[in-house]
Amino acid sequence: MTAVVTETPEVSTMDRVRTFAARRASVLPTLAAIAILIVLLIGAQVEFGNFLTPRNLSALLLDHAYLLVLAVGMTFVIVTGGIDLSVGSVMAFTGILGAQMLASGIPVWIVVPVMLAGGAAIGTLIGVLVQYFNVQPFIASLAGLFLGRGLAYVVSLSSIRVENPPILWLQQTRFLIGEWYITPTGIIALVVVAAGAIVMAVTRFGRTVYAIGGSEQSARLMGLSVARTKVMVYVISGLCGGLAGLLLTAYSGAGYPRYGIGTELDVIACVVIGGTLLTGGRGYVLGSMVGVFVFATITTIISFMGAEQAWTHIIVGALLLLFIVVQRAIVARSDRQT
Amino acid sequence: MTVDTDVRPLVSMRGITIAFPGVLALDGVDFFLRPGEVHSLMGENGAGKSTLIKALTGVYAIDAGTIEVADEERDFASTADAQAAGISTVYQEVNLCANLSVGENVMLGHEPRGFAGISWNAVHREAARHLASLGLDLDTRSPLASHSIAIQQLVAISRAMVLDAKVLILDEPTSSLDRGEVEQLFAVIRSLRDRGVAILFVSHFLEQVYEISDRITVLRNGALIGEYLVEDLPREALVTAMIGRELDELSALSGAAERAIDRTGTPVLSAEGVGRKGVLEPADLDVFEGEVVGIAGLLGSGRTEMVRLLYGADKADAGQISVGGERAKMHAPRHAIDRGIAFSSENRRAEGVVAELSVAENMILGVQAQRGWMRRLSKAEQDAIVAEYMEALGVRPADPTVPIGTLSGGNQQKVLLARWLAMQPRLLILDEPTRGIDVGAKADIQRKVAQLAAEGLSVVFISSELEEVLRITQRLAVLRDRRKIGELDPTEVDLDGLVDYIANAGHTERSATR
Questions:
Q1: Who among A201, A218, A338 is closest to B145 (CB)?
Q2: Do B34 and B120 reside in the same domain of the chain?
Q3: What ipTM was estimated for this complex?
Q4: Of A32, A64, A171, A232, which is most buried with the most CB atoms under 10 A?
Q5: Of B80, B108, B142, the CB nearest to A207
């Protein structure tokens, strides 16, 4: 064993880092995600030369608005220690339902609330199964996944074009800020992120979500409304699924029952990469947004390279693995302190 | 047992009866709790203490009787109901959220809210105020998980004060605290008592009960034995009240310690310098044929860790183990089982019984695993083993087909003992085999261990009850702070001597580095 000679570190700085690490260990994975995002963006710029353009970065948000909305809902569920596998099919179902209703001439001001309510209804079903029938979230939301996909096929087996002006307006309008642009769908996604972040940070409901993730038993004994909160997180996730259905319909100009197959796994990956602990109790909505941007950047880089999109999943999978290991290490460290 | 009644009870429980399938957990128990007193609820395991507490906190519904809080009859449907009526509970395992900050844990559900939702500055200010009123100065923004169990317990009490609790129930709050921490807790309890809070205290440490209590209520087998002022109840009277006539059963066992052991031959198990970094400092231990070796020490002193290393449940990173004179590598329980070593874990529920399987299946599990799954025991062989041990250990009910989960703790323990004995080990490691079981079962198990040892079985016996260790072992290894500090001959020390040795022997240099 050779002794490694190290320079004596500046004690004050080290101490400050240590205090920060002890107090805010839960933001470390999110900081790591931000670091990876920055490395990816700079790397892509160096490689391609034309990556960090306002146009490209604006498209990053625009192309993944629906993913962002789903990730917000998923963050609530995962922080309670649950999981929601239904979001991809809920998105497809509400999308095709909306397209079908619009095609039958039903006014848009009825269609949009129905889409949102449809998503929330499936979410409620999952929440009730989890809370009152004590079904594992994995199983309950798997049932929701099949239900949503089945209902989507019931509505239509083929794609239905959407020609409704207000829906198309969501996607086609571009508010320009210099070279940058943002669509109403992008604005909706950012508003959902902001709302989610605020609810998680400064409402009793949001804090109950964290408390349940920390220890459901304790939360109950502390007199918090555990049952209502646990149902609500699935309702929120379902609602986000419905909203994502609307955004995706606007984005693609059509409803299609095969949209979103496997999207739930992309969403979970984004949330975990963004620093949310799969076992619950720790995580941030803003972190999930970073996770989505990491995912979006990887997708874009792959298409810049002209490579197979299958590589996206390989890289995202590797990142996911890395993050789960990092999180385990952080949790193990903070457990050892007690 | 006359008790002064000049103070009006804040909580009056009368004729409380709770029945579980096949068991009358509480039978017409009366219990009164007055403001400004610390009232201890005493009884052996299974006496009904926790059932009574759960009735008061709304966890169990009562089958008969009345509960009055502040002269109002109550029927609690949930813990939230009980909390709303001013009854807060702090449990042995702290029921807080380790992922959140100290301040948030104190205030959760009662956070001050401003125009823009929860005002975090106000939350931490309020929390700091509540903590300060209990004499605690903590960084309220630090995560709860970064504090010791003792501090977490005090945080839980602070939380109860936020709820404006008039009744505070402390269920075994001191079981994992060291002496200084207990003092800190008691100071807080006293200050709350002086503010008029009614405190219900449960602990199995008699010293602590006498130190803090004003009044004691004793339960036995689900029935009320009596309510006493602490000065009217000497310790012997309390113990007699708690365990009744059964005390005699245990004392009949004494004498095991005098049995002579031949320590000249090859030890059955010999450990030299076995240790693991951060778990146990390297230690030696020999166990000879027919010997019962006790491992004594406080909770957390490394007792369980030591036997887990010997058994191979955890891998030692130092030292050498020999079984019957042969060097043996113990990297997995399999290695130990193959050499005739059996280990009964202290964690009966998680690492012992398979609750859904029957008594017979639970007993057979060990033998079957030893033989390998390819060589199934025939039905006749199984029945023979089961019948033999049901009889030998006196398992009740005497029906091997019932699921083991329905048996009392003591009977479950007997079944586990049978599981290991059926494997006919040379060495049996018992980690807390008598914890949480009634006196009768305890006596049965101790008697069986003594008998088996006399027949040549070697036993390593761990128990928190030092009297038990002194009574049935022929040699004692004493651990402290994850270090073996020495060996004692149980015929040469009494209980006080052992306690003194654990507390003071060896070095006295480090005073709690935690």
A1: A338
A2: yes
A3: 0.83
A4: A64
A5: B108
